[in-house]
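Structure ticket #2291
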Amino acid sequence: MPAFPDTRPIPRIASVATAPKTILVVTWEDGHTDSVDLSGWISTGGTLLSPLLKTAFFSRAAVAEYGLSVEWDEDGNAAIDSVHLEALRDQQRPFESRELSEWQRRMKVSNQEAADLLGVSQSTWLNYKGGKSRIPRAVQIACSATERDPIFFEAYYHPRSVGRPGNSTPA
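Resolution: structure written out below.
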């Protein structure tokens, strides 16, 4: 299957502020403001990003490249682009029942198939979809992974037959 380029506009950052620990408060060009926890991103950046763990350095966050990135040093060595920042923000948002239902529709799976795929009972699945139970982060991660990687989905998806099982007695 050919990959098509993403046609969404590149997000632009209007301003940034820092909050305790490794939280970056981003105001986007469209006026929305989000808090993004950068601790995971920083921890995977090795020695290049490790200075960001120091409050004095982290607090130097500034918008750069006409809103396309946030930088902490003049050389741009410690920087994150707006697309990556937006992706982290999107992954950190709580997964709501509406999004879960949309995922199910896009994946074309039944309630039972979705429950089986995610390792929960059908009643638990229906509680998630109905907004009666908080959707655990692990379910959000699994839904995201199965949609992003068809092989991952195919490895764990077990289709169900529609309706009652056929009559197994010979005629």
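Closing remark: DSSP finds nine helices and six strands in the chain.
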